[in-house]
Amino acid sequence: MKRLKTGSKSMMSRCHCLQLQATLCCVLALGITGCGEEHPGIVPVSGVVMIDGQPLKAGQVQITPQGHRASVGKIEKDGKFRLSCYELYDGVLVGTHAATVTAVQQVDERSNRWFAPKKYATRATAELWVTIDGPTDDLQLELTWEGSKHTEPFVDRF
What we know:
Elements: H1 9-33, E1 42-43, E2 45-51, E3 54-55, E4 60-64, E5 71-74, E6 80-82, E7 92-93, E8 95-102, E9 104-108, E10 111-114, H2 123-126, E11 128-132, E12 136-143, E13 154-157
Parallel strand pairs: 2-12
Antiparallel strand pairs: 1-7, 2-3, 2-6, 4-5, 4-8, 8-11, 9-10, 10-13
């Protein structure tokens, strides 16, 4: 029976080579993903959602730059929101983007309460666009019940 010499130079050099390769792969992966770098073009954005002149009291705002990660913010009871993309409240990419507002609460397993018209919940029907030129704390999203079959919050049964 042959014994493997764990202290042999050839085995040590192979281990050293594998460790070096693994280290280089990790360094390259971190460099490619941008670990530790800020996200260029992302600026802090906060604002308020109004519906027919009154603050929307619940829901979520989503701004979706084409070809980029979406930014999302929870709507507070006073209608205010702050957007997050990669980190909490880091904001949204500069530019003109589609926006949606989803203001729905589950009532039970067969119904939801909507606090704004459903059309604002999808990009295809929301027709909301925002232009972000730089950091801002006063972005306003104006919604309306006009043109909807409802004129106030409603329960949708399914």
